[in-house]
Amino acid sequence: MSTPIALAFLAASVLFILGIKLLSSPKTARLGNLVAAAGMLIALLATLPLLHGGTGAGVPGLNIMLMVAGIGVGLGVGAVGAYRVKMTAMPQMVALFNGAGGGAAALVAAIEFSTSANAQHASLADAATALSAGQTALASFSAAMLFACLIGAVSFSGSIIAFAKLEGHFDRPLTYPGQQFANAALIALIAALGIALIGSPGVGLLVLFLALALVFGVLMVLPIGGADMPVVISLLNSFTGLAVAADGFAISNLALIIAGTLVGSSGTLLTLSMCKAMNRPVTNVLFGAFGKAVENDATAAETGGSVKPIQADEVALLLSVAQHVVIVPGYGLAVAQAQHQVRQLADELAQLGVEVSFAIHPVAGRMPGHMNVLLAEASVPYEQLIEMAEINPHMERVDVCLVIGANDVVNPAAHEDKSSPIYGMPIIEAEKAGTVIVLKRSMGKGFAGIENRLFVRDNCRMLFGDARASLQELVAAVKAA
Amino acid sequence: MTAEVLTFFIFVLSIFLGFELIFKVPSMLHTPLMSGTNAIHGIILVGGMLTLAGAEGTVERIAGFIAVVLGAANVFGGFMVTDRMLQMFKRRKG
Q1: What is the secondary structure of A391-428 as a DSSP string?
Q2: The complex's ipTM?
Q3: What's the predicted TM-score (pTM) here?
Q4: I need a labelling partner for A328 at 20 to 30 A (CA). Which of A199, A372, A394, B93 fits?
C-alpha cells in the first residue's frame, strides 16, 4: 500500500474516532455522525486505487459492473430501510444493518480463506525448509479468517432473529431442556471443525462451518426475551466489529482493524452499560431465560388485590388541580403512536399552571433512548425529560403520576420480591406519588411477563383503553375543566 | 519490530481507545451511539470491494457481489438511520 493511500486510511480512522467522541454528547451528536461518514467516504475513495484483479492485473470489467451494481443495491436498501420505515421500527433496522455487516464480514473471510489458504498451502508443500515458520503464519492467518467467518455468521443470523423478535414474531423466549448442553456441544463442534479447517482447508468443510455458525447465531438469540433485545443488538454490533477487525488482520488493512476494534471494544462496554442500567449481570440477560419461564407464585398471591378503574373526566379533574404531574412513558405509548396527544396534554396542563415532567427510565421502550426520540418527535421540550435517578427523590412531592404504556419499569416487585425476575432492577418510584393513574389497554403483562404490584396499590387507578384515545379524551376533558 | 507486532500494538491501543470513548455516555445516547458505531463497521465494504475485484469464477463473484451489497447496506443504511435518529435532537438545540 503506497504512503498516500495509507495516510488516507489513517485520516479515515481519525475521523471515526472523532465521530464517536462527538456522538457521546447531545449537542454534537449529529456532527459526530457526519464526521464519521466523511471518514467512511475517504476510506472508500482510498480503496479505489487498491483494487486489482486476481493475478495482480487490472480489475475485470465484469467485476467492476458487479461492484457498481452491488453498491447501488446496498445504497438503495439502506436508504429505504432508514427513511421509509416508521420511527418505532428504528431499533429493528439497526439490527438488520448490523446483520448485513456481519454477513459481509463472514463472506469476505470465507472467500479470502478459500483462495489464499489454498494457494499458500500448495506452495508450502514444496518449500520443506520454510515449513515450520510458514505454517505458523498460515495458521494464524487461517485462524483470523475462520474467527471472522464464525463471528460474522453468528452476528448475521442472530441479528435476523433479533429483528424478528422486535417485530413481535416471537411471544416468549424459546427454551427447552438441555439447551445449555446443546449450545455448548455446538460450539465445541464448530471449534473442532475450525481446527480441522486450519490443517486442511476444503470448501465442503468451510460451508459446513458457516452453516453451523449460522445455526448457533439463531440458537443463541432465541432464548432471550424481547425486552432484552437492545442488549443483544449491542453485543452483536460489537461481534460484527470484531469480525471486521479480524478481516482487517487477514487482508492487512489498518483501517478495518482500527474501525473494527473501536466498534468491538466500545460495543462491549456499551453492552455492559446497558446491563448495568437494568441492574442485571450480562450473563443473566444472555443466559438467564432458563428457569424464569415459571410464573412467580409470590407475586401472583400479592396481587390478589383488585384493580380500581377510573374514568377520563375524573382523571382530568385530578390533573387540573395538581401542582406537579409526572408522566412515565413506556413502550405502549410508542405502539399507540400517542406521543403527539401526550404533548397536547402536557401543554394544556402547563396552561393551567401545572408543572409537567416526563420521567424516563433507562430501558423504557424497545431501546435506551427510545422514549427520548419518541417524545422529541412530538416536540416535547428537552428540558421536560428527566432521567430516572434524578426524579425518584422528588416522587413523594408529585401529586399525580401518569403511567402511559409502561409496566415493568414502575413495578415495585423490583424492590420487594426477591423471587421476581426483575428483582434488583432500578425502577421509577411511581407509587410514591399522591395518585398514580395507569393508562393501559388491558390487564396484559409487560415484557417480563409478571403481574405488576403497583396496580393494586391503594393510590393507584387504572384508565383502561387505547392510549391515544384515552389521551384525546383527557385533553378534551382538561380543556373543559 | 515486525509489521505483525506493530499491528498488534495498534490493535491493543484501539481496544483501550474504544473503551475510553464510551466511558461516560448518558443512557439517552446509547441507541444513536450503537447505530453510529454500527455504521462505522460498515467499512467492511472496503473488504468486500477488494475481494470482489479479485474474484475469479462464478462462485467467488456471487459471494463477492453479496458481500458488497451487504456491506453497502450496512454503511449507507447505518449512517442514514443514525442521522434520522439524531434529527430528533437537532430541534432541541435550535
Answers
A1: HGGGGGG-SEEEEES--GGG-THHHH-TTSTTTT----
A2: 0.93
A3: 0.78
A4: B93
